[in-house]
Design a protein that fits this description.
Keywords: Glycosyltransferase, Transferase. This protein is α/β, with parallel strands linked by helices. 46% of the residues are buried. The protein is built from 16 helices and 13 strands.
Length: 463
């Protein structure tokens, strides 16, 4: 559809990591198809993908312009750290908080460009793009008509009864979670929280932000969680701006089948394995999965390496019943798949379940344990509770999923639930509601006539 001058403009933002920006781009693709004009702020590694969905591109600068493969350069000592909570704390401080000024400056550059139209601009960001926070806290500069935040991760907002790891509501668990809730803000993330407040003050905010994990949930005009309710633990209280929106929309893409596509179509059973786009070593999951299933009768294993041009190490022998490809359209393969073995990314779970495919999860970093616990509680997954599973663990888990119809039945229920939520429609309704209420439109402070500078010690990456 041609762009419409009657629609509000969209400014979308996301961290330059695949799991964060790709869900945003999926929705932006739908918006541009429906006649919206969109601009996207993210890292240069994703510029072509931004343009491919019909949006204009504004790059992040400086330390904010990282990507999946340069994180170790941004966070001191990261490459030597095993996946752990300590590494997550470091990631938050250096990747999300320290880069906030550069993110905010990029948003302001984009707003300045869009302001000439005189049309309302709606800000759409993902939950960990902290550069949107100062806009809700009185910082000088251009202001959007309103802010919509997208939940591209399991819910991070605290509750008396859940920390995102289980649904235990016993008195003992309740007391433990209350203590952990306090520790998250006042001990574990105390440094990041203090730096977050300091940066916001330096940028001219007239209010202090909420706890770093929760500000986006509370301050956004609309918060759209990109999953169905069954993939979240129950909560006693959620903000009034919160809504479950289902998974991101599917888009038709050109599909050129590989030479072995006939093997997929004729196989009695197909198992897909991938480590996503941020694999450190294919020997962590893909190689042991190929080994685990090499003697399975009537089974074809398809391994997707996640990056164009990627290859398995030279010493890996690919079994006869396996096919390996560098990059592949998931939506083309998943309708033929009986089970997915993967490392627990949030988007991968939604993608798989949108085709009613149950999963085996082997992931222990970032948000992957939270994803796995939700998937297992929903009955659609087996959580191996490790990022380095053995051949025996993988074989047993795949056999269990294939041999027990309850996993496919539960996956089908979630698929139907996903289909009852139209995330693009929900987003467009939210955009139009915000624009029609004219929440400040595109305004700026009296003194703000030039680009917002990136200033202050917040730019320094401390060790």
């Amino acid at each position: 559809m041609s762009p419409s001058s009657h629609k509000p403009l969209i400014l979308a933002c996301g961290l330059p990591l695949s799991g964060h920006i790709m869900p945003v781009l999926s929705l932006v693709h739908g918006l541009t198809d429906d006649g919206y004009e969109a601009t996207v702020v993210t890292g240069r590694a994703f510029e072509q993908k931004v343009r491919d969905v019909g949006a204009d591109f504004v790059p992040l600068e400086g330390n904010a312009d990282f990507d999946d493969h340069t994180l170790d350069d941004l966070v001191p000592g990261r490459k030597d750290m095993a996946p752990s909570f300590d590494r997550t704390v470091q990631d938050v401080e250096h990747m999300m908080v320290a880069t906030l000024p550069e993110q905010f400056a990029a948003i302001q550059r984009a707003f300045k460009k869009l302001s000439a139209s005189g049309r309302p601009v709606v800000l759409v960001s993902e939950v960990l793009f902290f550069g949107a926070h100062p806009i809700s806290l009185g910082a000088p500069g251009f202001k959007p008509a309103g802010w919509i935040c997208l939940g591209v991760l399991p819910l991070l907002i605290r509750s008396d009864h859940t920390l995102g790891l289980d649904n235990d509501r016993s008195p003992e668990a309740h007391a433990k979670k209350l203590a952990m809730n306090h520790a998250l803000e006042h001990q574990i993330f105390v440094k990041a929280t203090a730096k977050h407040k300091e940066i916001c003050r330096e940028l001219g905010c007239t209010e202090d932000p909420k706890f770093i994990w929760e500000h986006s949930y509370i301050a956004a005009d609309k918060f759209l969680q990109l999953c169905p309710p069954s993939l979240e633990f129950s909560r006693d209280h959620l903000p009034s701006n919160f809504k479950f929106a289902g998974s991101t929309p599917k888009h038709r893409t050109q599909f050129t089948p590989p030479s072995w596509w006939g093997d997929v179509l004729s196989a009695k059973r197909v198992i897909m394995v991938t480590q996503g786009t941020f694999a450190v070593s294919y020997k962590h999951l893909i190689v042991p999965t190929l080994e685990a299933l090499k003697d399975e009768p009537d089974t074809l294993t398809v391994a997707i390496l996640g990056r164009r041009g990627a290859k398995l190490p030279d010493d890996v022998v690919v079994p006869e019943n396996a096919r390996v490809i560098d990059y592949f359209n998931y939506d083309a393969l998943l309708p033929h798949v009986d089970a997915l073995v993967y490392n627990g990314g949030y988007g991968g779970l939604q993608h798989s379940l949108s085709h009613s495919v149950p999963v085996v999860i082997a992931g222990d970093s970032e948000d992957k344990p939270m994803v796995a616990s939700r998937a297992e509680a929903a009955g659609v997954a087996i959580d191996l509770k490790t990022g380095l599973p053995t051949v025996e663990q993988i074989k047993e888990a795949v056999d269990s999923i294939i041999g027990n119809p309850k996993f496919h039945e539960a996956s089908k229920k979630v698929q139907m639930e996903l289909e009852s939520h139209n995330s693009l429609k929900i987003l467009e309704e939210s955009i139009e509601e915000i624009a029609s209420h004219d929440f400040g439109l595109l305004t700026k402070s009296d003194e703000e006539t030039e680009d917002i500078p990136v200033k202050g010690p917040a730019l320094a990456v401390s060790s």
